[in-house]
C-alpha cells in the first residue's frame, strides 16, 4: 500500500509466455498489493507461466475478446478486489514496471487521478527501436488530437497507464470498443470528465517478442482515433451526444 491505498497492477495478456517473467520480475512487490493477469484466449502457455510465477489472480477468456475487451476484464477485476490505484502494465516487456512507484505516488499523493508513461517525452521511443513510420504517425495523430480536444499531451497511444478508483468508477469504459481504439476512447472520456492527466518519461523496447499490430490494423486504429477525437469535439460543443460520455451506471 501507499498512503493507505491498495495498489493493483493489471496485465492484459495475449501470447505473452516468452516475456511475462521479465515483466513480472520488475514489478515492485513491496509496493504493489496484487497482480491481476487477464489472458485473452492465448495460443501459448501464458497461463501456465503465470501460475509458475505465483500470480494468483488469473482471469482466462475462453474466446478472444480483443485488446479493449481484455482491459475491461482487467479493470472490473481490480475494482472487485478493492483497488484504490490500478496500473496497467503490458506483459510484453516493452514498458518497464520500474516506473510503477513514480506513477503510484502521483495518484496516492492526491496530485492526479491519471498518469501515463510517455514514450515521446525525451528520446525514448526512437532510441528504443520504435519504427519511424509509427513514430511519425504517433506525432501526427497526437497533434490532431490535441487540436480537436484542446489538450497538450505528448502522446495518446501509450499502453502504460495508472488510474485512481474514482476515475474507473466514473467513466463509462464498458461502453467502449473491444478493439485497440479502446485506449483512446478511455482518455477522451477522462478528459471530457474534467480530469487532468500527468505524464512521466518512459523508456521503451521494441523487439521480436514484443506485441505489435500490423499496418492494416494500425490504419484502422488511426481512423478510429480520429473518429474518437471528432466525437469528443462535437460532444464538448454540444453538437452531438455519444453514449461513451455518459457516467457509468452502478
Describe the structure in your own words.
The longest helix is centred in the C-terminal third of the chain and has 22 residues, at 215-236. It is globular and about 50 Å long. It is an alpha/beta fold. The protein has helices spanning 20-25, 46-53, 66-80, 100-108, 124-127, 132-149, 165-170, 182-192, 215-236, and strands at residues 7-13, 34-39, 57-60, 85-88, 114-118, 161-164, 197-201. Strands 3-2-1-4-6-5-7 form a 7-stranded mixed beta sheet, with helices on both faces.
At the fold tier of CATH, the topology name is Spore Coat Polysaccharide Biosynthesis Protein SpsA, Chain A
Question: What is the strand tally?
Answer: 7
By CATH, the superfamily comes out as Spore Coat Polysaccharide Biosynthesis Protein SpsA, Chain A
Oligomerization state of this entry? single chain
Segments where pLDDT lies below 50 for 5+ residues? none
N→C terminal distance: 26 Å
Strand order in the largest sheet: 3-2-1-4-6-5-7
Order of helix and strand elements from N to C terminus: EHEHEHEHEHHEHHEH
Which structural category do the helix and sheet elements fall into?
A: alpha/beta
Instruction: Indicate the overall shape.
Output: globular
How would you sum up the major sheet? Answer: 7 strands, mixed
CATH class: Alpha Beta
Overall number of domains: 1
Count of helical regions:
9
CATH architecture descriptor text: Alpha-Beta Complex
- The helix fraction, in percent, is 25-40%
Amino acid at each position: 500500500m501507499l498512503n493507505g491505498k491498495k495498489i493493483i497492477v493489471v496485465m492484459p495478456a495475449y501470447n505473452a509466455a516468452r516475456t511475462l517473467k521479465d515483466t513480472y520480475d520488475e514489478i515492485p512487490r513491496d509496493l504493489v498489493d496484487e497482480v491481476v493477469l487477464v489472458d485473452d484466449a492465448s495460443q501459448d502457455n501464458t497461463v501456465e507461466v503465470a501460475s509458475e510465477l505465483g500470480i494468483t489472480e488469473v482471469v482466462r477468456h475462453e474466446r478472444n475478446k480483443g485488446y479493449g475487451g481484455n482491459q475491461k476484464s482487467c479493470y472490473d477485476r481490480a475494482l472487485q478486489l478493492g483497488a484504490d490505484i490500478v496500473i496497467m502494465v503490458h506483459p510484453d516487456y516493452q514498458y518497464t514496471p520500474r516506473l510503477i512507484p513514480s506513477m503510484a505516488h502521483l495518484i496516492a499523493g492526491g496530485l492526479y487521478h491519471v498518469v501515463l508513461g510517455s514514450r515521446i517525452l525525451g528520446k525514448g521511443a526512437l532510441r528504443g527501436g520504435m519504427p519511424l513510420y509509427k513514430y511519425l504517425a504517433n506525432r501526427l495523430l497526437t497533434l490532431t488530437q490535441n487540436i480537436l480536444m484542446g489538450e497538450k499531451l505528448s502522446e495518446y497511444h501509450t499502453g502504460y497507464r495508472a488510474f485512481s478508483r474514482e476515475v474507473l468508477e466514473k467513466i463509462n469504459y464498458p461502453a467502449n470498443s473491444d478493439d485497440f481504439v479502446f485506449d483512446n476512447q478511455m482518455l477522451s472520456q477522462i478528459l471530457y470528465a474534467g480530469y487532468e492527466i500527468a505524464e512521466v518519461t518512459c523508456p521503451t523496447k521494441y523487439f521480436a517478442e514484443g506485441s505489435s499490430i500490423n499496418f492494416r490494423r494500425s490504419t484502422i486504429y488511426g481512423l478510429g482515433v480520429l473518429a474518437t477525437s471528432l466525437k469528443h469535439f462535437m460532444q464538448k460543443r454540444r453538437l452531438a451526444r455519444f453514449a461513451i460520455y455518459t457516467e457509468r451506471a452502478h
